[in-house]
Amino acid sequence: MARVSKEELLALDGQGADFAEAQLEEANLRGSSLPLTIFFRANLRQANLIQADLTGADLREAWLEGADLIEAYLKGADFTGANLEGVRARGAFFQNTKGWPGS
What we know:
The chain has no helix or strand. It has one domain: E3 ubiquitin-protein ligase SopA (Pectate Lyase C-like). By secondary structure, it is mostly loops. It is globular, with a radius of gyration of 12 Å.
């Protein structure tokens, strides 16, 4: 299981990276380019994903409690089974998003 400090990930360009089951609690991914990235069952509690590009990302069963997805690009992302309690997503772009309430 990967553990990454929040400082290491700022403005990451991680297209297609595999962070399945990674411990990314409080990670700062603000403005990161993460299309097609795998976050299956990852711990993203309190993560900063403001303005991140999560196009087609796999966030199934991820823990996103209290995460910031403000103005994030979420086209085609899959949140099936994810814990979305307290997630802030004002201004986020949703299109063909799976598992998001109301999508």
